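EI: anyone free to look at a 432-residue chain?
SC: sure, send it
EI:
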Amino acid sequence: MAASEVTVVAVDEAERLAVDGLGWLTATARETADGGLAWTTRPSDDELDAMLYSGTAGIVPVLLEAWRHFGDDSYADTALRAARSLADSVDRIDDDSLYFGRTGMAVVLRALHDELGDTAAGAAADRALEVVRSRFDGTRWGELFELMGGNAGIGLGALVAGDAELAVLAMEPYLRTAEHTPTGVQWAHLPDTDSRLHHISHGTLGIVLALARVGRATGRADLVELALTGATNIVARDEAGPEGFLVVHSTPQYLPDAIDPISYGWCHGPAGDAQVFRLMRDITADPLWPALADRCWHTVTHSGLPQRLRPGFWDNNGRCCGTAGVLALACDRIAEQEDPHDFAHVLVADLAARAIQDADGARWSNFEHRATPSDLEPCTGWAMGNAGIVRELLRFVRLSRGGDPRYAFTWPDQPSTPAQTTIRYSGTDTVS
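SC: here you go
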């Protein structure tokens, strides 16, 4: 999408959009019996959702972001009320993973203890990790064996939450379950499947990221070496070199009737692959990895997104597999490499154009061309909803004003950027 085709959005307007998104989000909260707050995945749902992926645990980080960004204690107060429901959910949820279970809740509860001094949240985080530890069968916690729902995410989450021993316990099974290929190693994300997924959310690169980060933090060179071998396997599958980087979703294609082989977002595409390569850059200092991250970015920016080029192409605004996830990488590059703001402008303008705005605030509807109606109900959480989108809008605004590019809450699978206060907005105070 050429810059001339993009509606101009002032940075102040982008910030107002984030405020309206926060307003809608806080208005959709449900009060719990103990005076806490919790969310459902969609406002029309009846069942509360505690997950980092789509529920309360994933909404708390954007409240911390807003508290830091605006200096408004009301956002911190809301986060503390949400901590009550999360602490209660620790004992009720039947999943131990990072994105769908206890480990993700522990990470957020630990952040609430560290950032806001909530000792009850800290105690609940400790309790959650002890339950996770007790449910380990010696190899895994459930069917999934990857970052979102399996060992890799539990290892990352335990490390972030301060339990390095549990982090190593979660990662060591990858040493004995790795499948050797002509170019490296890989893992099955589920038992009894022939397909091998390749990217960050459910595939080999997500395991690579966790192995590398846990291995580096705990002095386990064997885990780091295994991460390098896994990354090499995926790099060898590239179909877009030498300038780009693009690897199919899986080999053979998993669920071919439902999943496209090519994607560009965080979950199954180069926007997420680049996050892994950023981490490998920081751990190894090998110039191969920043070069690969650059190639990922070349592919993303030349893919046509965020245009809706055909049915099913780029139908999501969210952080997991949509525009907000690409904006996160764009802002990483601005912070670390002083990249031009141009493509970030395109992404923010598209989010602004697609927002539903009225007296209730702002929110985003994703689109499913195979469903009727195709416009889906707006979601609240990190993956597909307001929390993930608003979080990235607020960071974009800070970068545009020369502020700190760091998040108030660093996501476990997104390498942090250094503090900077000298980056200035390129051009006028508009998104162009």
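EI: The longest strand covers residues 179-181.
SC: 👍
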